[in-house]
Design a protein that fits this description.
The chain is α+β, with helices and mostly antiparallel strands. Helix content is 41%, strand content 20%.
């Protein structure tokens, strides 16, 4: 089906922390590539995103930091918005679910479904924190996993053994808010009966959308085959959109219900007069770019909500990527194991496209993939710099050297020239096919293949040598090279917009980047980029006043044409598109991650030791008073100590008991060295029957305390006393 327009959304990032590279690879860079491509093809597109700003985790962070939830979301909304802008991800609107427009829109959405009796109500007992005076979500409950004994399992999952749990299964559950033991309390909530929509979903997804990516289709099928259950759409909380019905005091819309409505709210905020054509006109195509963890919400839950409402369009596609790992380990915000985008932009200024390129080239499109700093360096230095940048630089520098910086005439063409230019067109066709089927990694390969074609051509033709004998042939070689440079300025615009713009500045050309809705209502402007004194200058002329006269404007249809830059066209100065990434730069990033991992491991070890130290051995069988009285426990001092040969655990100790000097063999060598023992006052069981250990007669036993961590510690007198003093 052909569409008049395309509405593209990216998953609303949660305003509880900054954006990391996993987010970029999962949804945001793919969405931006797709939108840039469609705009260059002349299609009408609106690009929607914004911050997801409600939910329990935000309230917890606010409580921990002694601020309000609004303070938290205000901070991270700006951090995330700036991070996206810094990487050239230009949404038509980046709004937020705490806006007044969204509060009104989400409430109206709920109210209509409520009035249509699309919800069911259920009263249930849920865990309640009497000290914090609030109901607890699963993640606010912590206890001991009944399957592996992990004392820090959540109410929904044990991250140590991976078991799915319910709060009722936890041993010794505690509230993470107050540390108190939660109690059960009745509460009423509204539920969306997803089971009611299951037959429709099975047909709509499994039969009508078999073209969806296999990871998306497979996860949807798994959910449907498992049987859908009603899902609560309200929560007992004071941060969020209030439930707009009587009897719902102290309740808000559940964040999973609230957030996707944000797409509609943000469109309405951008285009208050015409938003309905983007959400209700069948000639609009809706595409959601999301990460793996959002598939069920965008493919099953949100479509069910839209279906229930009645007159909204449904997503045409939901391209989702898998997870991106970092240096072989799962990216985790709680463990600070991530490359934060705002930090990257500060530490690698001018290298925005390098990150875009690497995350696209290594995108987790069909399975989880790994980002490493060494691969980041290699792809920049051996691909962007050595192939793309090197080719452009040689072509432009040689043109300045031999032809005064003007595109030479094609004076002496040969068959190889036409064959080389013709090879661009199949790359363009493959690139288009891959983008339109959401395979951006393969599409980028085709763009880079164009650069490889140019780099091989200039290396094979060696115009710097030909110029010594045949300047006309040199002209044709460089003419061919410059046409490929123009191709690259078009082909790389969706993937690496900053370097593509820099290249257009070198070539002194503009580009028709399509419609722009950021101005809101009215006639969309056309984004022309013109060249002025060798620098790319953005202009946004109206449709009635297009690009400035005399400005050469590229468009997608020119890609793969034999001639784009006419002879005599003047070039700007040659500048490097990319710089080399040095070893010390990536080593510093690796060292930073290693320091984070080391600190985390030390903290976890200390926490484990502290937990273990709290544990005590179970009580042994009872003894009589007479049995205890038979034990002669005395103080003693160690006079000499040495390891028992050919053992790892035994020390031979010579001690002064105040009665005599004797030898005791003790298994404490893994905790204490002989040097540690000299002069130490200890307590011993003096009347233990002698025992020969490794050929040494041991007379007595040292009293030790064993904690939960397994380490042995001495029982010593509080004050120094004479040897032989009896204890008891």
């Amino acid at each position: 089906m052909s569409y008049k327009r395309t509405l593209v959304t990216c998953a609303l990032p949660y305003a509880n922390g900054p954006v990391h590279i996993g987010h970029l690879a999962g949804a945001y860079i793919p969405g931006d590539i797709f939108v840039r491509y469609l705009r260059m093809r002349g299609e009408d597109v609106v690009f929607i995103c914004g911050s997801d700003e409600h939910g329990v985790p935000i309230t917890i962070k606010a409580k921990d930091q002694g601020v309000t939830p609004q303070d938290i979301v205000d901070k991270y909304h700006k951090v995330m918005k700036d991070a996206f802008t810094g990487l050239g991800i230009n949404y038509d609107i980046y709004s937020r679910t705490s806006s007044a427009v969204h509060a009104e829109n989400a409430a109206e959405f709920f109210r209509k479904l409520y009035d249509q009796d699309d919800f069911i109500t259920q009263e249930s007992e849920q865990l309640y924190d009497e000290e914090a005076k609030m109901f607890l979500t699963d993640r606010l409950i912590e206890g001991t996993c009944p399957k592996c004994g992990n004392p820090h399992a959540y109410g929904d999952q044990c991250e140590k053994c991976g078991s799915t749990l319910s709060p009722e299964e936890l041993l010794e559950p505690k509230s993470k808010l107050s540390g108190s033991t939660p109690v059960k309390k009745k509460t009423k909530h509204w539920y969306l009966p997803l089971d009611k929509y299951e037959p429709w979903l099975r047909d709509w997804i499994l039969e009508q959308h078999k073209e969806w990516k296999t990871n998306v289709y497979g996860q949807c099928k798994s959910w449907l085959d498992g049987g859908l259950q009603p899902r609560a759409v309200t929560r007992d909380l004071d941060w969020g959109v209030p439930v707009p019905v009587e009897g719902a005091e102290g309740k808000v819309l559940y964040v999973w219900f609230d957030a996707p409505i944000g797409y509609i709210s943000n469109t309405k905020e951008l285009l208050p007069q015409s938003w309905e054509k983007w959400w209700k006109d069948p000639e609009t195509r809706l595409v959601h770019f999301i990460g793996k963890d959002n598939i069920v919400f965008h493919c099953i839950v949100f479509p069910s909500m839209l279906k229930a409402y009645g007159d909204y369009i449904l997503p045409d596609n939901v391209p989702s990527n898998e997870f991106l790992n970092l240096e072989g380990d799962k990216i985790s915000t709680s463990r600070n194991w991530a490359v934060w985008v705002h930090e990257y932009e500060q530490e690698f200024p001018g290298c925005e496209d390098v990150l875009r390129y690497v995350l696209t080239a290594n995108a987790p499109e069909t399975k989880d993939n790994d980002f490493t700093w060494k691969d980041f360096q290699s792809r920049n230095n051996s691909e962007l710099l050595a192939v793309f940048g090197n080719f452009v630089n040689r072509a432009v520098v040689l043109t300045h050297k031999y032809f005064g910086g003007k595109v030479p005439a094609n004076l002496k063409p040969e068959a190889i020239d036409a064959e080389t230019l013709a090879a661009i067109k199949p790359c363009r066709e493959a690139l288009e096919k891959y983008i339109e089927t959401y395979h951006f990694r393969e599409a980028l390969k085709e763009a880079m293949n164009m650069a490889r074609i140019g780099n091989k051509y200039i290396s094979d033709m060696e115009p710097w040598k030909v110029a010594k004998e045949d300047m006309d042939r040199t002209a044709s070689i460089l003419y061919t090279c410059l046409q490929i440079c123009a191709d690259l300025a078009i082909a790389f615009e969706p993937f690496t917009p900053f370097s593509a713009e820099k290249l257009r500045g070198i070539l002194r050309v503009g580009i028709d980047a399509g419609t722009d809705h950021r101005a809101g209502e009215g006639t969309p402007t056309v984004n022309f980029y013109k060249a002025d004194e060798g620098k790319a200058v953005h202009t946004r002329p109206t449709a009635s006043s297009p690009a400035p006269a005399g400005n050469l404007v590229l468009n997608w249809d020119m890609l793969g044409n034999a001639e784009i830059l006419p002879a005599g066209h003047e070039l700007g100065e040659a500048v490097l598109l990319f710089r080399k990434i040095e070893d010390d730069e990536v080593n510093a990033q690796i060292a930073k991650l290693e320091a984070i991992k080391k600190a985390r491991e030390e903290a976890e070890a200390a926490k484990a030791a502290a937990e273990a130290a709290k544990k005590v051995e179970p009580q042994k069988a009872e003894v009589t008073f007479d049995q205890f009285g038979a034990m002669d426990i005395r103080t003693a001092t160690v006079l000499a100590a040495e390891r028992v040969p050919k053992t790892d655990k035994l020390l031979k100790l010579t001690i002064d008991t105040g009665i005599d000097q004797r030898t005791i063999v003790s298994g404490i060598a893994e905790y204490y060295s002989p040097e540690d023992m000299l002069g130490k006052q200890i307590c011993i069981l003096a009347n233990l029957a002698p025992r020969v250990i490794r050929g040494i007669e041991s007379r007595g036993m040292i009293l030790m305390a064993k904690q939960g961590d397994g380490k042995m510690r001495f029982i010593t007198p509080q004050e120094v006393v004479v040897n032989g003093a009896q204890i008891g």
